[in-house]
Design a protein that fits this description.
Layout lengths: L9 E6 L2 E6 L3 E7 L2 E6 L4 E5 L2 H6 L7 E5 L2 E4 L3 E4 L3 E4 L3 E5 L5 H18 L7
Antiparallel strand pairs: 1-2, 3-4, 3-7, 4-5, 6-7, 8-9, 9-10
Amino acid sequence: MLPNWGGGGVFAYSVGRETRSVLIRDIVYLEVLNRKITIHTSDGGRDEFYGTLKDVQEGQLRGLDFIPIHASFLVNYHYIEAIGLTSVRLRGGIGPLPISRRRKAQVLKRNMEIMERRLARTNLWDWV
């Protein structure tokens, strides 16, 4: 069973007059600075486009396993290696990325919801 991280879904975005796309499962995290969103991908690549994280989160990534950890960062749950008191570390040595104080409880709650949903889909006999 595929996790809820976009499977083979594609994230499409515009750069000037060009439409580009990336597999959702390859997005490690998105970062915004002055309305310029940078997509960081699992192969180390980056691309930029203009927009807001809110529009991205409520649009193409709605209902998928992405967690807003800060006004500037939206991370893919499947790349999280560790959640600390004030930051998140991602696979591949990425981070630490800051967790805002006001989002800390929301980050922990969302992390737990995703974990519980994934465990509910897991056949525990496979672990024996």
